[in-house]
């Protein structure tokens, strides 16, 4: 795609992004909710998004699936007040809805598998009903304009006429950084175009590329993003990625599955201590008489 078409597509998505933003009043309400409240708190939401990241990695889903699932989840939570006990059903429903839009049908995990691996306490019928509720409330059809939409377009623009930049400006790395940011509800208040540009500038500064920095400035001027807004979110992105890169941070995509079983099930599970000892197989050649 040439520069003119990319910039035109960029503008079209920029004009549509406001339709796919969660209600800020709803997000603020979640952020102000304490953990002992009967409503969803920011910590509860962030933990559930990390679970979605783990499920995305386990089933081999794309970044697009994860980002769309988080977008659906945040828009629904900012619109409808739900109890914490229903959050698992809502979040997994959003993931399944996103996967049906972005993944090949042959790669889709059956609802029962999503529920089993996610160790959720609801049925496939519950999941189906919740999907219908979310789709109806959000008027969801098949897509949403997200930060990943802009990140992909920015990356294509940055690589125009210079494929060598692909080696130093990794889209995969940018996607991983975006996923880390989305695990914090505060970034759901950012305009997708601004969040994506903040991530791009952060990486460009890291690789110290002056020509790509000029491309980022051109994108900023084209979309009329103010310096104040870009600086604000760039600082927040830098802090988030600094925390994420620390050894103390538990990476959701590296998390091991932990199975919760009843005491009776645990007693019935075979461990190496319960395996009966078998006689040692002799290593010498068989005697013909033993045949």
Automatic annotation (TrEMBL):
Pfam families, alphabetized: Cyclin_N
Domain annotation Cyclin-like: ranges: 50-136
Domain of life: Eukaryota
Keyword Cell wall biogenesis/degradation: no
Keyword vocabulary terms for this entry: Cyclin
SMART domains: CYCLIN (SM00385)
Similarity remark: Belongs to the cyclin family.
Function comment: Essential for the control of the cell cycle at the G2/M (mitosis) transition.
Protein known as: Cyclin-G2
Organism: Notothenia coriiceps (black rockcod)
Species lineage: Eukaryota, Metazoa, Chordata, Craniata, Vertebrata
Gene that specifies this protein: ccng2
């Amino acid at each position: 795609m040439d520069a003119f078409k990319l910039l035109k597509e960029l503008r079209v998505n920029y004009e549509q992004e406001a339709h796919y933003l969660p209600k800020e009043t709803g997000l603020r309400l979640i952020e102000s909710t304490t953990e002992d409240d009967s409503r969803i708190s920011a910590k509860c939401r962030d933990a559930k998004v990390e679970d979605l990241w783990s499920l995305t990695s386990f089933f081999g889903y794309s970044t697009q699936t994860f980002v769309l699932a988080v977008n659906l989840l945040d828009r629904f939570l900012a619109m409808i007040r739900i109890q914490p006990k229903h959050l698992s059903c809502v979040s997994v429903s959003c993931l399944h809805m996103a996967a049906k839009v972005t993944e090949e049908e042959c790669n889709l995990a059956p609802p029962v598998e999503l529920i089993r691996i996610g160790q959720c306490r609801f049925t496939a019928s519950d999941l189906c009903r919740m999907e219908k509720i979310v789709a109806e409330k959000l008027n969801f059809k098949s897509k949403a304009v997200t930060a990943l939409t802009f990140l992909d377009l920015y990356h294509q623009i940055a690589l125009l006429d210079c494929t060598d930049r692909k080696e130093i400006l990794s889209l995969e790395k940018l996607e991983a950084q975006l996923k880390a940011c989305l695990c914090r509800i505060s970034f759901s208040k950012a305009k997708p175009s601004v969040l994506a540009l903040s991530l791009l500038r952060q990486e460009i500064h890291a690789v110290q590329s002056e020509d790509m920095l000029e491309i980022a400035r051109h994108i900023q001027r084209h979309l009329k993003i103010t310096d104040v807004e870009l600086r604000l979110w760039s600082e927040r992105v830098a802090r988030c990625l600094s925390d994420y890169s620390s050894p103390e941070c538990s990476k959701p995509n590296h998390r091991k599955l932990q199975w919760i079983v009843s005491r009776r099930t645990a007693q019935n599970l075979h461990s190496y201590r319960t395996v009966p000892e078998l006689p040692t197989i002799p290593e010498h050649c068989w005697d013909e008489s033993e045949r």
